[in-house]
Predict the structure.
Amino acid sequence: MVRAGSLEKGMAILIKGEPYVIVEREFVNPGKGSAFVRTKLKNPTSGQVLRETMKTQDQVEEIVVEDNDCQYLYADDENYHFMDLDTYEQFEVPVKTFEDYRYLVKEGETYTLVMWEHRPLDIKIPYKVVYVVTKAEDAVKGDTVTGATKIVEVETGLKVKVPIFIKEGEKILVNTETKEYVERVNS
């Protein structure tokens, strides 16, 4: 058991016998009354999202999870397919549960799967990832207003707003939480 005040984003807890991953956490300390924690929880099996408000001293059952390094193989209409790098066991993770990750994961890359009782609960994606630009319109001569941008598509299908000087074939660094351009990568 762990106190609600100690909950952190990414932790897994048990509610009514079902595992939930903490997607968002906000600590609130009002001027009057006791402090509390607002959380947004996601059930990785069903995709159900709960919003819970708990007093900081409330007890919550934390579940013991293990991190497995897995290679992302491919996705079909229903599942992402991963392979454990140690045991070569393959896992299917429902696409509907992690719809936000569809355009963030790259085939052949290694990601950490958070597992509980041999069930994937979460996919840990790095905060920043390098992608190759596959579709980009050429900049129009004279269109050089400060901060001019355009939309490009990267190798996974993700569409990103970038400065107009970015060309097809270049590598860019993208913040995976906001899906925003960070910088051009020279290699």
Remarks:
- The longest strand covers residues 18-28.
- The two ends are 48 Å apart (CA to CA).
- The mean pLDDT is 86.
